[in-house]
Amino acid sequence: MIEDSPRKSRKQLLRWATVVGVAVAIGSLVLVFNSRFGVDPRLVDSPLVGEPVPAIELELLTGDGSLDFTDLKGQVLIVNFWASWCFPCRGEHPALTAVANDYRDRGVSLVGVIYQDRSAEAVDFLDELGWGGDNYHYVQDPGSRAAVEFGVFGVPETYFVDADGIIVGKVQGAVTSGVLRSTLNQILAGELPAP
Amino acid sequence: MTALVGYLGIMLAIASAFILALLGLRGLYDPQRVPRRYLDRAVVGVVAGAGLAFFALEVGLLIDDFSVAYIADHSATTTPFVYKLATGWAALEGSIVLWGLVLAGFTLSVHLAYRRSDEPDPLWMGALGVLGLISVFFFGLMATVSNPFQVCVEAATVGCIEASNIPWAASMASLEGPGPNPLLQNHPLMAVHPPLLYVGYVGMSVPFAFAISALLRGESGDNWLRRTRSWTLVAWSFLTAGIVIGGLWSYEVLGWGGYWAWDPVENASFMPWLVATAFIHSAVVQQRRGMLQAWNFVLVIATFALTILGTFLTRSGIIASVHSFTQSPIGPALLWFLTVVLVGSLALFATRIHLVASAPRLNSLASREGAFLFNNLLLTVFAFVVLTGTLYPMFAEAISGTQLGVGRPFFDRLAIPISFALLLAMGLGPITPYRQARASVVWERIRTPLRVALAVGAGAVLLGYRTGYLVAGVMAGTLVISMIVRHLWVTARRASVKQGTPMWRSLGRVMRNDPGFWGGQISHVGVALLAIGIAISANQGVETQVTLEPGQTVEFAGRELTHLGEFARQEPNRTVVGARVEIQEDGRVVSVLEPRLNTYFRSNQPVATPAVDTRLRGDLYLSLTSIGSGRISLDLFWFPFISLIWVGGVVAAAGGLFARVVRKPVRVGAVAREAGEDV
User: Fold this and answer.
1) Out of B161, B318, B403, closest to residue A33 by CB
2) Residues A153 and A69 reside in one and the same domain
3) pLDDT value at position B56?
4) Chain A residue with minimal CA distance to B329?
5) Whole-model pTM over 0.90
6) Closest in A15, A32, A86 to B394, CB measured
7) What stretches of B401-502 show up as alpha helix (H) in DSSP?
């Protein structure tokens, strides 16, 4: 038995090493998966990220007057491209109006740019689903000038612009309340949102 | 009403599953104290609850009950019947209901299999207990974070704006729903693919439950393996069929001409398949030679954990993929469950390993056992490669913050050599004797098949197929098939001479006498056919883009394609526009294809539906990319012998079922041994 003991202890060591190895593997798996919650995999890289927001003047959807993105410098912006015919837009709209309302006092404004849509139908859509507060602006985009400048691929698409007027993030497809909030919180805290 | 009935079903299932878990785990230690009729009631409760929930959901879909949020958000009055049914599992919450129903079905079958035996059966009771625990979790999901019976309390014209978890809340129904995702209502295979896959996924819970029960009891030996063999085979066959049909769906619907993209969720179904395949093989080694006892526990735990990982990856929304659902609280819940499963079962395994591990008794690597070991090594390495490729981008992003993708090249580069090695092992393994194989015996068995393979390889080269991978793939596939055919032929001839029966009868008898082995060989033939199909279609396929004016003709892959004109029609749930393209071969019209763009209501993105002309020699595949003012643009593909992939997949799945369904004719001497394992 005595000559067995070094072998036995090596075996025991091996067993412990295995246990620790497996535990570390499981632990890191859980940590990595956990870090993905609340981060939308559709928060995509775009060549526009890091660039200043395009200086375009767009007519408001209702009433007279126009809006220039660069006029809103100092505000954190969410620019959402949408259309009344786009079903995912319908799904994400309540999240956008809720965020507009909750972040009004923190210097956040939203701009909804209608994309290849008739303004009457867009108005009907908003009458049905809600307009959001006075920090939610809706503009028309005849000829899709803004959409081209932003490099819109298909609606809905959402861009985040920080207070210095720099585009810092882009989401393709419908946004959720969680993604909007976590991204805004990062921008307001002065961090770059993790794509 | 629908919501209330469905929710009651879920509650009944949770309560019964909880009782089943308690009874089962009690029975594990003290089987005498658990009367069978209590178990009966608990199992009936789970099945009734799951059935009721599923039934309520389907009825709600059929009668367009938009007061249920799930139905208001995923169905529409204009959705055709089949797709209304399929909507029951096409979205997140509904898919969990189907999951629960399948799990209840498996629990019932485990219960029925042994309830008549009079002897105390702690292993079986423990397994029922584990199945009960798994059920508690899944029905718990339905009751909380993934509730398919949420009541719509504020409706829009289309769909539901706000939903409540309280089943008796004052409901409000929208007039119409958006209908299912266009991609999911574009092909009837979508109604088949998920249920098959779920039977495969969920079926793996049964061997897992028995394994955990055996570990809890500290029971060594192959009792749990023998008793779960049927379920493992059934689950494996369904998983195989589900994956292959998923590939076929992708090919027939998505219009990119491919069937497999190493998409994270495809990988999620492929990983448990690989490990389950390894398990089926290593289980044979344990049953025949008593080796690999501990390893089998590892494999079965890994298979089950991978099915949960797959469910998590698909449903948590943490990856972007064709399959993924949007993010919801179900993600963290599944992550918790995965952690509990991994930590719990591996810790249990670690504390019991000294009781269940068998001493290694490998006589020689050159033996059937050696081939099985090699096969297990390859399959697990393959699974590990796929796992790494799937998870690496997430790890990289968590650590360095950069977004990257692991593309096809990574998977292909590693998967191809592993697949070749697997094909070789598949050919050599079954003809290698147990314990110690002499080279002369193996050579005798391999000689003729090798000649056949070389001849076929030479033929392929002469026919102009000069790609290395193609020739190697075809040769490896042919080698496997011809070795199996030779083996069957030789065995049957021997039997025919010995018993004086005609050859064709001996063939059937030989196969029936050893359904496990020959079922496996049928699956091997299927996999070999599939490999040949992949090798030829991937290397010899041609692709081009053309734009055609009406009446214009283009030549492609030896055929003449003529644009006859456009058509448009209105169907209840979609607008279809398409082009009619006439295919001529040697001046003869062989078919008229109609590649289409389907635009579903309330969705602006048209879905391209390719038109495929399937023939023995290959598929002509037309996918419309644009249409308007008479002119059409088409993606044209020619895939030689691609049907072999589907045929091979179905044959492989059928082999698993053959091994399960065919009964060995009982011989006098074998009665005693059979009695114990009969299901």
Assistant:
1) B318
2) yes
3) 97
4) A37
5) no
6) A32
7) 408-428, 439-462, 468-499
Regarding whether A68 and A11 lie in a shared domain, the answer is no
For residue B673, the model assigns a pLDDT of: 39
3-state secondary structure of B262: coil
Tell me, yes or no, whether A68 and A99 share the same domain: yes
Q: Do A91 and A133 fall into the same domain? A: yes
Are A83 and B319 within 8 A, CB to CB? no
Do both A30 and A61 map to the same domain?
Answer: no
CA distance A71 to chain B (A): 32
- Determine the distance in angstroms separating the CA of B220 from the nearest CA of chain A, rounded to an integer: 20
The CATH number that applies at residue A162 is 3.40.30.10
Arithmetic mean of pLDDT over chain A: 83
Chain B residues bordering chain A (beta-carbon distance below 8 Å)? 156-159, 161, 178, 312, 316-320, 324, 326-327, 331-332, 335, 338-339, 342-343, 346, 350, 391, 394-395, 397-398, 401, 403, 602-605
Compute mean pLDDT per 10 residues along chain B, 679 residues long, and list them.
93 97 94 90 97 97 93 89 90 92 97 86 94 97 92 82 84 82 78 90 96 92 89 95 92 83 88 96 88 91 95 78 60 92 94 80 80 92 93 82 73 91 90 84 89 93 86 94 93 89 88 91 96 91 89 90 89 85 90 87 71 90 82 90 94 93 60 35
Q: What dihedral do alpha carbons B653, B256, B467, B267 form, nearest 10°? A: -50
The label of the residue with tokens 């001839």 reads B493
Task: List chain A residues with CB under 8 Å of B343.
Answer: 23, 26
Q: Is residue A47 a part of any domain in this protein?
A: no
In the Cβ-directed half-sphere of B347, how many Cα atoms lie within 13 Å?
8
- Position A51 in a domain: no
Q: How many angstroms separate the most distant Cα atoms in chain B? A: 82
Give residue A113's pLDDT: 94
Residue A153 placed within a domain = yes
Give residue B466's pLDDT: 82
Tell me, what's the pLDDT at A2? 47
Pairwise CB contact (< 8 Å): B335 & A33: yes
**Which of B318, B604, B605 comes nearest A41 by C-beta?**
B318
Complex ipTM value:
0.74
Distance CA B343, CA B340 (A): 5
Instruction: Indicate if A97 and A157 belong to the same structural domain.
Output: yes
Number of domains in chain A: 2
Domain of residue A6, residue span: 1-39
Do the Cβ atoms of B398 and A30 come within 8 Å?
Answer: no
Which alpha helices (DSSP H) does B154-290 contain, by range?
A: 189-203, 205-217, 223-253, 264-289
Q: Is residue A14 part of a domain?
A: yes
Q: Tens digits of per-residue pLDDT, A38-88?
A: 655 556 667 778 888 888 888 998 888 888 888 888 889 999 999 887 777
Residues A20 and A82 in one domain: no
CB-based contact B346 A85, cutoff 8 Å: no
Question: Which of A19, A38, A41 shows the shortest C-beta gap to B319?
Answer: A41
Decide if B604 and A94 are in contact by the 8 Å CB cutoff.
no
Q: Is B87 exposed, middle or buried (0-12, 13-18, 19+ CB in 10 A)?
A: buried
Distances (CA, A) of B270 to B60, B312, B384, B387: 34, 15, 11, 10
pLDDT(A120) > 90: no
B99 in Cβ contact with B197 (< 8 Å)? no
Say if CB B367 and CB B435 are below 8 A apart: yes
Letter string b/e over residues A16-31, b meaning 16 or more CB atoms within 10 A of that residue's CB? eeeeeebeeebeebbe
| Residues A33, B394: C-beta atoms closer than 8 Å | yes
Cβ of A94 within 8 Å of Cβ of B161? The answer is: yes
Q: Are residues A71 and A15 in the same domain?
A: no
